[in-house]
Design a protein that fits this description.
By secondary structure, the chain is α+β, with helices and mostly antiparallel strands. About 15% of the residues lie in helices and about 30% in strands. It contains 3 helices and 7 strands. It has helices spanning about 45-55, 75-90, 125-130; strands spanning about 10-15, 30-35, 65-70, 110-120, 130-145, 145-155, 165-170. A 4-stranded mixed β-sheet has the order 4-5-6-7. Helix 3 links the parallel strand 4 and strand 5. It is elongated, with a radius of gyration of 21 Å. The N and C termini lie far apart (about 60 Å). About 15% of the residues are buried.
Amino acid sequence: MAITIPEAELVERFVRSTGPGGQNVNKVATAVELRFDVAQSPSLPEAVRERLLAKRDRRVTNDGVLVISAQRFRTQERNREDARERLAAQTILNAQVVDADALNYSTDRRFNAICVTGAVSQIPAQWLQWLQPGGRLFVVRGRSPAMEAVLVGGGERNEVNASRIQSLFETDLPYLQGAAPAPAFEF
């Protein structure tokens, strides 16, 4: 199901960019601030509205207005396109569940979100390669009984980086088949 948002429901403001721009920076309003009133829009299906408002997203104001700032590009037109693409990404309705052996799965696809339903002692690097830039990986890692659930954010290069790993809670979960660590040496 495609969602069409009429131009009349979008409010754009052009401001000076702090990003790239060469000689134009601080002279030309190339950055775009796009506002869309999620709470009042007649164009959104109720399920999408509820999902967007339920997100704990700092870009949604207390009044239910989604504010997207775009300033990655040097031109106003490209920043405008970027803001609209990011608005469209907020209303994604489709998701696909891939039920596979995570340790032996092979794909060229990239995912926005990956949730692993078993524990691993270490996060395999290939899982990070499957993330889109900005994607998220939820996984339980560590050695039983002291495991932690973590949320890993994919960056531009999708590599394990301590600043992108958020510890959520401690737990103990069965390992994925073949993911148990080698037994520790005991006396």
